[in-house]
Design goal:
- With 556 residues, the protein is of the alpha/beta class.
- Among the domains are: 210 residues, Rossmann fold; 177 residues, Transcription Regulator spoIIAA (2-Layer Sandwich), CATH 3.30.750.200.
- The chain is built from 22 helices and 17 strands.
- Strands 2-1-3-4-5-6 form a six-stranded mixed sheet. A four-stranded parallel sheet has the order 14-15-16-17. Strands 9-12-13 form a three-stranded parallel sheet.
- Strand 4, helix 6 and strand 5 form a beta-alpha-beta unit.
- Helix 11 packs parallel to helix 12, helix 15 packs parallel to helix 16 and helix 19 crosses helix 20.
- The longest helix is centred in the last third of the chain and has 22 residues.
- It starts with a helix and ends with a helix.
Length: 556
């Protein structure tokens, strides 16, 4: 056993607030794993919510584990010791259940690394009753569980409030059952997907057939909570070494009412739901007893009814407010004033499409005049730094679209400069550019990603075009990471072997070559509408609507 790691974990626990430590006697033991580093996982509100859902049961022990940091990883490998949980420093293999909470598809690549460190076989077919049950849930699984399906005994397709209680009830009444019988029982729970109970057949690049076995449903139906007030999701754990240290996070809504055609959050969290103003206000004012800053969380915070009143009530109680980004056509003056009073010096806006044609194609629902007006209003409230998010490589995009983007950015710069002259100080515009990545369950899921060489040329054009603009800074997400995200987003079950190989050799690109998989071909391929998709294992009542939206977007 590594005393360096144990000492580090004990110091982490001592610095935290809100953690739960229970005795193991007679309880179901769960290790909740975030497949990334501690700092990232502890900043994730969904991870914290599931930790609370498990530990709210008196007969369940839920502890945490994370992808080890660089120094921890070296220590584990040098000492040849199994991965330990944070709370009790017990090996993950000692738990009844190892549950991965996965928000981002690229974290799929870390799951076999964690299983290997834990001395748990990567593939479910290699595990027996002596191994923990390995499950996963989270937004990434809502989208496409198939790239890691062969690594999992169970996948949770839906929201934790609906799934965790039923899963725990099933596990407690099936104690002592053979693993296959337990899996059959699990498959009867709405929202639980058991990959080993489905046979997948392929024809070249496509899925040819999905055959359910043992009388399980033909597809798994996503489950969701219709009462977010009852869930009341807010921060449960507080630690100094996190992105939101010192801030209390509150979920105000799920999903988005806008329906942008590229955005998965608006579709996988349908229907759009928001909490009542009074419940959020009560939770926020209560949290201010111990926290000075409240972070409002949701894909569409600006659409929350009463957002200005909520922000003002927090400020009047002596608190500060933070939001991730604002909807351009839903800026509330009271909210802007409170954000300024809360010390916000930068606000993020998302025009997304580089031209009006492409903003219409993705159904963004805003025009250049609204973008300029939003920037003017923010600067007039003395918020001088703007971060603008754009997507390039959208279907049908041409260089004329990028020319229009450059003109829009220059117009924003001129407006900001003119408006800010009165206070004799200029802010900065940060241009954050990201490649289009097709996502499951969106109208653009059938589109291919633009080729890397094309994206490189477009990025070089934009970088050069804004280089001469004072107070404008250009940022772009790494193309390598974007291609990996696209591959995993669109991958089928055959990708599991590649992901495990990548964990062993340290390179996904190398692993795809060793498995005769053409990465660029797979991510840039336009998928025929009639082709079966890997994620068709998840029921999709809105498929006809997605097809119509796709055809409308592309003028078909």
């Amino acid at each position: 056993m590594s005393w360096k790691i144990i000492d580090k974990y004990r110091r982490r626990i001592a610095e935290e607030h809100g953690g739960v430590v229970k005795g193991w006697g007679g309880k179901l033991t769960v290790c909740l794993v975030y497949p990334n580093h501690y700092r990232t996982g502890m900043s994730n509100l969904g991870f914290q919510a599931v930790y609370g859902l498990f530990n709210d049961h008196s007969d369940v022990v839920c502890e945490r584990a994370f992808l080890p940091d660089k120094d921890e990883l070296a220590e584990y490998r040098t000492g040849r010791k199994p991965l330990l949980s944070l709370e009790s420093q017990k090996p993950l293999s000692d738990f009844d259940l190892v549950a991965f909470s996965v928000s981002f598809e690229t974290d799929y690549l870390n799951i076999p690394i964690i299983l290997s460190l834990a001395r748990i076989p990567s593939f479910s077919s290699e595990r027996d009753a002596s191994n923990p049950l390995v499950i996963a849930g989270g937004a990434a699984l809502f989208l496409n569980p198939e790239p890691i399906a062969d690594l999992l005994d169970l996948a949770c397709i839906g929201e934790g409030e609906m799934l965790v209680p039923k899963l725990l009830e099933m596990l407690q009444v099936t104690e002592g059952l053979a693993r296959r019988e337990l899996l059959l029982q699990a498959a009867s729970i709405p929202g639980i997907y058991v990959p080993s109970l489905y046979r997948i057949e392929y024809a070249g690049e496509a899925v040819a057939a999905i055959t359910p076995l043992d009388d399980v449903p033909a597809c798994v139906r996503r489950v969701w909570s219709d009462d977010l007030d009852m869930a009341g999701v807010g921060s449960r754990l507080f630690a100094p070494d996190t992105e939101f240290s010192g801030m209390y996070l509150i979920e105000v809504s799920r999903g988005c009412p806008r329906g942008c055609r590229f955005c998965a959050a608006g579709f996988i969290y349908e229907p759009y739901r928001q909490r009542s103003l009074e419940s959020v206000k009560t939770q926020a004012l209560s949290a201010l007893a111990d926290h000075k800053k409240i972070g409002l969380v949701g894909a569409a915070v600006g659409d929350f009814k009463g957002i200005g009143e909520l922000c003002r009530s927090i400020a009047d109680a002596g608190g500060a407010v933070s939001v991730a980004s604002l909807r351009i056509d839903a800026l509330d003056d009271e909210m802007i004033r409170v954000l300024f009073e809360s010390g916000h010096k930068t606000i993020s806006l998302a025009p997304e499409g580089p031209s009006q044609r492409l903003r219409d194609l993705v159904r963004k629902g805003i025009n250049a005049g609204q973008i300029l007006e939003a920037c003017r209003r923010l600067v007039s409230h003395d918020i001088l730094n703007l971060k603008l998010y754009f997507i390039i490589g959208l279907p049908t995009e041409t260089m004329a679209d990028l020319d229009e983007m450059v003109s829009l950015v220059d117009a924003i710069r001129q407006l900001v400069t003119e408006t800010a002259k009165g206070n004799k100080r200029l802010g900065q515009i940060t241009l954050s550019v990201n490649p289009f990545i097709p996502k499951p369950f969106t109208p653009l899921q059938w589109c291919g990603m633009a080729a890397v060489k094309e994206l490189e040329l477009k990025a070089a054009f934009l970088r050069k075009a804004v280089a001469g603009m004072p107070n404008v800074r250009f940022q772009m997400e790494g193309l390598k990471e974007s291609v990996i995200q696209a591959l995993v987003s669109r991958g089928d079950r055959r990708l599991a072997k590649v992901i495990v190989n990548a964990a062993e050799c340290g390179s996904l690109r190398k692993a795809t070559k060793e498995n005769a998989m053409d990465m660029e071909r797979l991510v840039t391929r336009t998928v025929p509408l009639e082709e079966r998709l890997p994620w068709d294992l998840i029921c999709c009542e809105s498929r006809k609507r997605l097809v119509l939206e796709y055809r409308w977007a592309l003028g078909q």
